């Protein structure tokens, strides 16, 4: 549904020098830069990611998204030999997927092409309003053998180790992109956090295309997010509820956890003193300026693309003026941007 209030997309644009788009991950993972932004004072510090425990307090709860990227990119060809690329977004049933198909202008309803060594026939069943396709395959796919890990289009260098686009704690592969704030964590850093008395909980939100889909309307408030499925365990909900009741901070590792947590506060069946409820569900929550955060007190996030839903979420948390203050500082100090880039801690 639209709204009469106008929030201009143009106000969330910025110019990024191309050399600052990270093409490869830093080794070790936790040696990337960390911009620490103190929200109330607007104060910035330049640190390294392994310094994160220094800014946390005993009893703080860190929430991680343990989703895993599935090898969802497939390559095929038409009968005439033209190349086709398929990005699987969501499985509808055994043989049907929602997908992005290139070249889109030729892949209209009824189009047919072949996957791999002509072992599977793929038919375009329908073209959706958002440009995605429903495709039907002649046989069930074995993505582990047939698929390739998708990386964002702005990464043009070949990824030598596909595990570097997975978090070290990733679990079930159902996402089309990584929760990139988590890529900075190492086993050693996780141990340091636990030794510091920080509580660590894992939740799952399956990241879909909707998280990254381009906003195509001038009024940000008219943009509609796609639904993404999530799982919030009872133990995670209990830990978070206890922290909120005791006035301890809940800090999200990445924007996907923010959406999951902020979506779980109005579900039925809450007991006294509970703020968040456990269970499975889906969310199409679009967090943008004006959102009142009820669960999340702080955020660790990478630097996001201009005019993106992720950038708007960060603006909702720290304010537009602070957002561009931090991003300008990062650009002027050669921080690396996007999926394989550096990170920012907002507390």
How does this structure look, described?
The chain has 347 residues and is an alpha/beta fold. The chain folds into 2 domains: 249 residues, QueA-like; 74 residues, Beta Barrel (Thrombin, subunit H), CATH 2.40.10.240. It is built from 6 helices and 17 strands. It has a 9-stranded mixed sheet with strand order 2-1-17-16-14-3-12-13-15, covered by helices on one side. It is globular.
CATH architecture of the largest domain, by name, is 3-Layer(aba) Sandwich
**What structural class do the secondary elements suggest?**
alpha/beta
Q: Do you know the CATH topology of the largest domain? A: QueA-like
Number of strands: 17
Name the helicity range: 10-25%
Looking at this protein, list some descriptive labels:
2 domains, 347 residues, 16% helix, QueA-like, six-stranded antiparallel barrel, 6 helices, nine-stranded mixed β-sheet, Thrombin, subunit H, alpha/beta, globular
Give a summary of the structure in a few sentences.
The chain has 347 residues and is an alpha/beta fold.
């Amino acid at each position: 549904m639209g709204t009469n209030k106008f929030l201009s997309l143009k106000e969330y644009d910025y110019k990024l020098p191309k050399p600052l788009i990270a093409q490869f991950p830093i080794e070790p993972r936790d040696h990337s830069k960390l911009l620490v932004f103190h929200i109330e004072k607007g104060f910035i510090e330049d640190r390294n990611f392994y310094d994160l425990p220094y800014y946390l307090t005993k009893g703080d709860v860190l929430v991680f998204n343990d989703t895993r990227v599935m090898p969802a990119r497939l390559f095929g060809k038409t009968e005439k030999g033209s190349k086709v690329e398929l990005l699987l977004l969501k499985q509808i049933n055994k043989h049907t997927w929602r997908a992005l198909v290139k070249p889109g202008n030729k892949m209209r309803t009824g189009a047919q092409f072949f996957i791999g060594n002509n072992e599977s026939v793929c038919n375009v069943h329908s073209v959706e309003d958002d440009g995605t396709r429903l495709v039907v395959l002649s046989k069930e796919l074995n993505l582990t053998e047939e698929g390739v890990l998708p990386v964002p289009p702005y990464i043009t260098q070949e990824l030598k180790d596909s595990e570097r686009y997975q978090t070290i704690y990733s679990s079930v592969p159902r996402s089309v992109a990584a929760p990139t704030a988590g890529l900075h964590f190492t086993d050693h850093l996780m141990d340091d956090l636990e030794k510091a008395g920080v509580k660590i909980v894992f939740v799952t939100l399956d990241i879909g295309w909707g998280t990254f889909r381009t906003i195509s309307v001038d009024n940000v408030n008219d943009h509609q997010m796609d639904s993404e499925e999530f799982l919030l365990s009872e133990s995670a909900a209990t830990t978070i509820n206890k922290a909120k009741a005791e006035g301890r901070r809940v800090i999200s590792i990445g924007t996907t956890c923010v959406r999951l947590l902020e979506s779980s506060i109005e579900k039925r069946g809450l007991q006294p003193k509970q703020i968040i409820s456990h269970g499975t569900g889906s969310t199409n929550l679009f967090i943008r300026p004006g959102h009142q955060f009820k669960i999340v007190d702080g955020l660790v996030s990478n630097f996001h693309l201009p005019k993106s839903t992720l950038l708007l979420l960060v603006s909702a948390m720290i304010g537009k003026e602070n957002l561009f203050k931090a991003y300008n500082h990062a650009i002027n100090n050669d921080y690396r941007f996007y999926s394989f880039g550096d990170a920012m801690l907002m507390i």
